[in-house]
Amino acid sequence: MNISHIEHIGIAVKSIEESRKYYEEVLGLTCYAVEEVKDQKVKTAFFQVGDTKIELLESTSPDGPIGKFIEKKGEGMHHIAFAVPNTTKALEDISEKGVQLVDKVSRAGAEGLNIGFLHPRSTHGVLTELCSK
Fold this sequence. Notes:
Distance between the termini: 15 Å
Mean pLDDT: 96
Shape: globular
Helix content: 10-25%
Order of helices and strands: EHEEEHEHEEE
Number of strands: 8
């Protein structure tokens, strides 16, 4: 597996509209895309910071993964995503090393990326996402 860079940092928020003000008005960043990923019950907003993005995640349903996360832990960092050449191959390689996966194969994510998650029980408490174009 060859990680090229941190693709994005995912941050769970109750409201993209409210949270966006901090990133735009205080930090001076520009939101360049807002997208809903229906099968993940989430709305996303992206900000570019150098080679890395910040992804705000707002649940579109209380029973979605982000809704459950916020209910349990509150707003805050949700995951870190690394760019890899091939998400499915990276998931296979990591699984062979004994890491527990959330996704055994890649699936469609925001911005047209192929994504797959590693379970935080195997990553020292950090939900880890792998992404490829």
